[in-house]
UniProtKB/TrEMBL annotation, chain A:
UniProt protein name: Agmatinase
Superkingdom of this protein's organism: Bacteria
Gene3D superfamilies the record matches: Ureohydrolase domain
GO molecular function terms noted in the UniProt entry: hydrolase activity, acting on carbon-nitrogen (but not peptide) bonds, in linear amidines; metal ion binding
Entries under InterPro entries matching the protein: Ureohydrolase (IPR006035), Ureohydrolase_dom_sf (IPR023696)
Alphabetized Pfam families for the sequence: Arginase
From TrEMBL, chain B:
Protein name: Agmatinase
GO biological process, one term: putrescine biosynthetic process from arginine, via agmatine
Amino acids binding Mn(2+): H132, D161, H163, D165, D254, D256
GO molecular function annotations of the record: agmatinase activity; metal ion binding
Entry superkingdom: Bacteria
Manner of cofactor binding, per the entry note: Binds 2 manganese ions per subunit.
Protein family membership: Belongs to the arginase family. Agmatinase subfamily.
UniProt cofactor(s): Mn(2+)
UniProt source species: Shimia abyssi
A Pfam family matched in the record: Arginase
Length: 291, 336
């Protein structure tokens, strides 16, 4: 059921991710996608502003909230020339709000508890960061999890790295995509929870300019979309978006980074919900099909 | 006795900028085959990110600065292998239409009156947005002018854009806004939807709007089509479709078809992957098209602190107007 029956301007109304329903964390059920924000700064970051990212991501996501807007007939992927299914989107996508401010210890504890509860309920947490340092807290909530990382600096050789920032010989996205995806499927152990870190630095910097860790030779949108589509076909316990600083000096009006991340994240959401848009290069939508 | 010191000097040039540093003249002074510029500094009909009301000024400034960097007169244009011509030979800037905030009908008629007068005189109206709604009044005036100048003439329509803009209504903004301009144009008497073509559409579109276009014979090329077919071939097919049985072409250039990574200063950004090079190739494909009128819209300087958006858009105008701003070489040329 749509949230409302009359068209609403994008900037008006209650802000939730893609105009999804809001839920209490205790009501998140199996198969749900639960969005939560962590609006906190990394105090060692070169610029202040990461804490504004969750709100920026939610604001730009409203553009894609067609399932809750009765003035649209149905969305079509113009490149694939296919209807984008939204069946069940409203029922399974929900926004549970932000982790509340508090002492550092309390914030980490709340994030850990929330992530664990969502995972234990059989749902997937979509975490809107925020400081990427909090990814360690999310990892610690998912015992023995495997971590796939798009962008950012590699910290653990056991993780699977997709276009990491150069770091003493780290790989780049010039690897053959098919071989890289096959390597991922070989790496993946379906008996363990899967945590995905999606950092804005996976993209070529010239596409957004809103990343605190700029890089040359990053991926284009299509490549990231294909990866997130593949990852969405796996039983992901949590995906965390980091690296966006919507408030880089003088760049507060440039909304390109958040649009880039949400556009790519949609591929993950659709795949996770089993919609399978059959975008060129995509797999079918059954979970774990390649593992 | 001390002579009075004269402090008044006539200005060396007219204050402010005109497009391509051309002359400021009234629409009534336009004549055939001239480009007649009309500013539409209005963004009251945009539903989200504003700032395009500063677009006409930014385009005037950017084209003038870029013009000053390009040799004039008997010099060689490296892109066209033709001689450049001073703007005074082919363009007049008629200033801005009177914009009445929150009275869309008054604004529509003010813009349409200017483009109509230009069209009747045989000039080619070039309207500078403003948000994309203003494309409708610009085309409305062109349509009315064409009906007077050539009562049986038909025109084709190409819209380079990241979005269809073919909705009948948009939420609180009703039927006249930046998402309905193409729909309103499709209702004009001397055009048929089967002669309307969209190029560069990205992401998701409303399925009902797309079906309505294609059922009536309109054609939509997505950004993916541009990548697959190539910009030149895409525009070749687009032009052929738009001009079937038509006498003239109306072109609407929405800058937002270019990927927002290159061009963030616009109201409704998309990640189309379309590069500046591809966008210019699309426009080059229309260099010899029978243009009857055109507009360029959605330049929003406040949304791009780097100012590159207005210069990318200015280059679009250099491209599409190359037929006017250059002349064939008829004698020996000395490069300057």
């Amino acid at each position: 059921m749509p949230l409302r029956s009359a068209p609403l301007p994008r900037m008006a109304g209650h802000l939730s991710f893609m105009r999804s329903q809001t839920k209490a964390i205790s009501d998140v059920g199996s198969g749900d996608l639960a969005v939560m924000g962590i609006p906190f700064e990394d105090t060692s970051a070169p610029h202040a502003g990461q804490s504004l990212a969750p709100r920026a991501l939610r604001e730009t996501s409203v553009y894609f909230g067609w399932h809750a807007n009765p003035q649209f007939s149905h969305p079509v992927d113009i490149d694939a020339r296919q209807d984008i299914s939204t069946d069940g989107l409203h029922e399974r996508l929900c926004d549970i709000g932000d982790i509340a401010p508090g002492s550092e210890g309390a914030i980490h504890a709340a994030l850990k508890a929330a992530t664990r509860q969502i995972s234990d309920n059989g749902a997937c947490a979509i975490i809107l960061g925020g400081s990427d340092r909090m990814s360690e807290t999310v990892q610690s909530a998912l015992s023995h999890c495997q971590t796939a990382q798009l962008g950012c600096r590699p910290v653990d050789a056991r993780d699977f790295h997709i276009a990491p920032l150069p770091n003493e010989g780290g790989t780049t996205c010039t690897l053959d995509p098919a071989a890289h995806r096959a390597a991922f499927c070989e790496w993946r152990d379906a008996s363990k929870p899967l945590f995905v870190r999606f950092d804005l630095s996976v993209f070529e910097t010239s596409l957004s300019a809103l990343c605190d860790q700029p890089r040359l030779g990053g991926c284009d949108l299509e490549t990231v979309v294909q990866w997130l589509e593949l990852l969405g076909q796996h039983d992901v316990s949590a995906i965390m978006l980091t690296g966006l600083n919507p408030n880089r000096p003088g760049m507060g009006v440039v909304k390109v980074g958040q649009r880039l991340m949400v556009t790519a994240l949609l591929a993950f959401i659709y795949a996770r919900l089993g919609f399978g848009t059959d975008h060129p290069g995509s797999q079918n939508s059954k979970e774990n099909v390649l593992t | 006795m001390t002579a009075a010191i004269t402090t008044f000097h006539p200005p060396l040039a007219q204050p402010g900028y005109r497009l391509f540093d051309g002359p400021l003249q009234d629409v009534a002074d336009a004549h055939a085959d001239q480009i007649g510029v009309v500013g539409m500094p209005s963004d009251w009909t945009h539903s989200s990110r504003l700032g395009t009301r500063f677009g006409p000024d930014a385009l005037r400034r950017a084209t003038s600065l870029m013009q000053s960097l390009r040799p004039q007169g008997a010099s060689f244009d490296p892109d066209t292998s033709r001689l450049t011509a001073p703007a005074t030979d082919w363009l007049i800037d008629c200033g801005d239409a009177e914009i009445t905030a929150q009275d869309v009908d008054a604004t529509t008629e003010a813009i349409a009156a200017m483009t109509e007068a230009l069209t009747v005189s045989g000039a080619i109206p070039l309207a500078l947005g403003g948000d994309h709604y203003n494309s409708f009044p610009a085309c409305l005036g062109y349509s009315r002018g064409l009906a007077k100048r050539a009562p049986n003439a038909r025109f084709g329509y190409i819209q380079i854009d990241g979005h269809l803009d073919f909705s009948d209504r948009l939420g609180a903004w009703g039927s006249h806004n930046h998402a309905t301009n193409a729909r309103r144009i499709s209702e004009l008497p001397n055009i048929d939807v089967s002669n309307m073509v969209w190029v560069g559409i990205a992401g998701w579109v409303d399925g009902g709007d797309l079906a309505l276009i294609e059922e009536q014979g309109g054609r939509v090329f997505s950004a993916g089509d541009v990548h697959k077919l190539g910009a030149a071939e895409t525009m070749r097919q687009a032009l052929a479709h738009a001009m079937k049985g038509c006498d003239e072409l109306y072109l609407s250039i929405d800058i937002d078809a270019m990927d927002a990574g290159y061009l963030p200063g616009t109201g409704s950004i998309v990640h189309s992957g379309i590069t500046p090079r591809q966008y210019y190739d699309l426009l080059d494909g229309l260099a010899d098209a029978p243009l009857g009128g055109l507009d360029i819209v959605e330049v929003s300087p406040p949304l791009d602190p780097s100012e590159r958006t207005e210069f990318l858009a200015a280059e679009m105008l250099f491209r599409i107007l190359r037929r006017f701003r250059t002349r064939p070489v008829t004698g020996p040329v000395t490069e300057q």
